[in-house]
Specification:
Chain A: Keywords: DNA-directed RNA polymerase, Nucleus, Transcription. Chain A contains eight helices and eight strands; from the N terminus they run H-E-H-H-E-E-H-E-E-H-E-H-H-E-E-H. By secondary structure, chain A is an alpha+beta fold. The chains are: A alpha+beta, B alpha+beta.
């Protein structure tokens, strides 16, 4: 195994082995921000390298900060390798809301809470209004894009904490063009984000996961039901 | 078409009220559709006498309607019997109907309707006899005041004349099909074919003017006066005429049968449901405004499932608002602001300075909330967001798109979607894309029509279960409940206290669940 230095070097490192160079070239030449799955990379090598050599070379390249490993959000078992200078595309990383292959639930919760806070403060808010308000508040170190704010606001609508309305240009919608989509806090019934318990959901059967197996005289029945027994345990 | 638990629930109600025999005949009609008496006998294997008596009970109690059909060539077909499923459901709501009455009328009205609900249908004389039998000291019943009470209730459309006993059902021809459907009060939507039950009910109904009229003895009174004033030289013919009129007058009042008009009560419950929904979403002010609009326009409603109320101007609405004690403190600006709030939620349509309630929208939102509550409690918050996304979008969405929009982990979304699909809450479609590699995508959708039917069936199932559990609990403590109070000591008293609480909880839950059934089935 030789460790000759290469005279022409676009690569930052100048002390790569032949095998490392081979692997690094394949990784770097691939779709830069998509990276390449380890197994696919082995297939694309022009020479058939033994697994232990490949593994050792990858480790070495990582230690030299030339390549990095990125989790594929669609399949966490598939590790993708890419050159360090590239940022993984949203298709692989999942986007701003993902961290190391999982949803960054804390971050999402914080952004949701900020959006809700601004909407309550503004009473009626457009996306631009929410975005500006968050920027001015300085709540986040990085600027969130309008698209990110929109994604979060849509999720808060799905949580039924705010509602989407269209401006009619008058009253509380003065200064907002007619027809523009705005957001308002849901005044009642959303109590802390929890949907109000409906009539059906207030009885055990209404929320029972076994309802499809329950029959009047079956093994699971209203007479034998453990949820009923618990409910009627006075 | 009736769902399985809709049928089971109805049969259970009839069993509880009228026993197994009547319930067997009822179940036969529910499962097989309209039948002749012979066929009922054949399917139930009961005797002719038993079938006849069961049918008589069901007809008396307005749960079955007889009818005949005309054959294109030949004589009328045999009498058939169709079950009135809606009226069976109403049987568990009598307490709600009486509560409505007690808020609007006096005790005599409530008692009269109580009698009609208990006995199914009564003539004025039967109502009088019933009132007399439960007469209290110092509170004597007289026929005139009872007649006045009846007139009040009929005018308010809470009581009606009974329908024809065996109306003739005309076959609907191709040409008159859409025209008939358009005019029909009982078809849910224009274009939706009427069920046989709906057709028979409509055919049996008397003309509107007759349906809500009370036959009195005025003719006979008039007859009497004329007779007396002509006693100098009464002509034989004239006397005969007067006597005839007199007989007719008395006979009519004795033969006309009345019953509670369920439609009137359901319409009132629908209004009440809309007011409660608005109060929960907005505030008392908005609820007062809606209530006033209903008060002003309800007499113009032609059917229970009216889509919109008659438009009203702001001044008309305000005039009505300030009539009530609750609305007296509201200013015109306050009313205007409430109308704007109602408009924002699309509960009220505003156009050209007139306002009209959109019942369908209010009910649609209430139904969505009911189903979303079940999804949230049964499957969790992530499922709740997913369901709301699919419900709002109304179209097929792919798994990844769903997980991205709802911020659900990519590995969790498919599991939740699969569970919702397996339990009948979502539709699923597979999309196979062939290219360099074959890829399979799963697409998901909420189909309201299918889902609403499924949700209603689950509610009927829950209603049946509640009823069975009540019976089970009371049966278990039958001896304890029959024990005199002084014998209930120590642990027996504890058990008694428990069964009391159990009964209150189960029975109040039945009433609450019935509100949901009303929302999905009757409103």
């Amino acid at each position: 195994m030789s460790k000759r230095k290469r005279p022409d070097s676009n690569a930052p490192s100048d002390s790569l082995t032949d095998h490392e160079r081979l692997i690094y070239d394949v990784i770097r030449s691939n779709k830069q921000d998509m990276g390449i799955w380890t197994r696919d990379m082995k297939r694309e090598l022009k020479v058939n390298l033994p697994d232990n050599i490949v593994t050792k070379s990858i480790k070495s390249l990582q230690n030299k900060s030339l390549i990095k490993e990125v989790v594929n959000i669609h399949n966490k078992g598939k590790k993708h390798l890419m050159a360090v200078e590239f940022e993984p595309s949203k298709d692989i990383s999942g986007g701003a809301w993902y961290s190391e292959g999982s949803l960054d639930t804390e971050f999402i919760k914080v952004v949701k809470s900020q959006c809700l806070k601004q909407i309550i403060k503004l009473k009626v808010a457009t996306l631009e209004g929410i975005s500006d308000s968050i920027k001015r508040s300085g709540a986040f170190k990085v600027d969130l894009t309008k698209q990110q704010i929109e994604e979060i606001v849509r999720a808060v609508v799905l949580d039924n904490q705010i509602m989407e309305v269209k401006s009619n240009g008058s009253g509380e919608f003065t200064n907002i063009p007619v027809g523009k989509v705005c957001y308002k806090n849901v005044s009642k019934g959303g109590g802390g984000g929890e949907p109000k318990t409906g009539s059906s959901a207030s009885v055990p059967c209404g929320v029972c996961p076994q309802i499809n197996f329950c029959t009047p005289d079956g093994v699971i029945s209203p007479k034998t039901c453990v949820y009923y027994t618990k409910w009627l345990d006075f | 078409m009736l769902t399985e638990y809709g049928t089971k629930h109805a049969v259970h109600v009839i069993t509880n009220h009228f026993g197994d025999l009547v319930a067997k005949v009822c179940e036969c009609l529910l499962r097989k559709g309209p039948l002749t008496r012979q066929n009922v006998k054949r399917y139930t294997e009961l005797s002719d006498e038993q079938v006849k008596n069961a049918l008589l009970v069901l007809i008396q109690q307005n749960c079955v309607q007889a009818f005949t059909t005309e054959q294109p060539d030949g004589p009328k077909a045999n009498t058939q019997y169709v079950v009135l499923f809606d009226n069976i459901l109403h049987r568990v709501r009598f307490a709600k109907f009486l509560t409505i009455l007690s808020q609007e009328f006096d005790q005599q009205c409530v008692e009269l309707v109580q009698g009609l609900l208990e006995h199914g249908r009564l003539t004025l004389k039967q109502m009088f006899d019933r009132a007399k039998s439960s007469e209290k000291e110092g509170n004597l019943v007289d026929l005139d005041s009872l007649r006045e009470t009846l007139v009040k209730l009929v005018t308010a459309h809470y009581v009606e004349r009974c329908p024809a006993s065996e109306p003739l059902l005309m076959p609907i021809s191709e040409e008159e099909g859409p025209a008939r459907k358009k005019g029909s009060k009982s078809a849910k939507k224009i274009g939706e074919p009427e069920t046989i039950e709906q057709q028979v009910v409509e055919a049996a109904l008397p003309m509107e003017a007759m349906r809500f009229s009370v036959v009195t003895n005025v003719e006979s009174d008039v007859g009497e006066k004329e007779k007396n004033s002509n006693n100098v030289t009464p002509g034989e013919k004239r006397k005969h005429d007067v006597l005839e009129l007199d007989e007719c007058g008395v006979a009519d009042e004795q033969s006309v049968v009345y019953r509670a008009n369920f439609e009137g009560f359901i319409r009132r419950l629908r209004h009440k449901g809309c007011i409660d929904h608005v109060r929960a979403h907005l505030d008392d002010g908005a609820a007062n405004v809606l209530s006033a609009m209903l008060q002003a326009t309800s007499s113009a409603e032609k059917k229970v499932k009216t889509k919109n109320s008659v438009p009203l101007s702001l001044s008309s609405i305000y005039e009505e608002v300030i009539k009530s004690e609750a609305g007296r403190n509201m200013t015109l600006d306050h009313v205007r602001a409430s109308l704007v709030q109602l408009g924002e939620l699309s509960f009220v349509d505003a156009s050209s300075d007139s306002y009209s309630i959109d019942f369908e929208k209010i009910i649609e939102i209430a139904q969505n909330e009911e189903v979303e509550s079940v999804v949230s409690k049964r499957y969790g918050r992530d499922a709740y967001r997913i369901f709301r996304l699919l419900s709002k979008s109304g179209r097929l969405l792919e798994t990844d798109k769903i997980s991205d929009t709802t911020f659900v982990e990519k590995k969790d979304a498919p599991k939740i979607l699969y569970k919702l699909w397996k339990d009948g809450y979502l539709l699923m479609e597979k999309l196979v894309v062939t290219g360099a590699r074959q890829s399979q995508f799963l697409l998901w959708k909420v189909n309201r029509q299918i889902l609403w039917k499924h949700v209603l069936d689950e509610m009927f199932h829950a209603a049946l279960n509640l009823s069975l559990r009540v019976s089970y609990e009371l049966d278990r403590e039958k001896e304890l409940l029959n024990l005199p109070a002084d014998k209930r000591t120590g642990p027996l008293q504890d058990r008694y206290n428990r069964i009391r609480k159990v009964r209150i909880l189960l029975e109040s839950s039945q009433m609450k669940l019935d509100d949901a059934i009303l929302l999905f089935h009757d409103f």
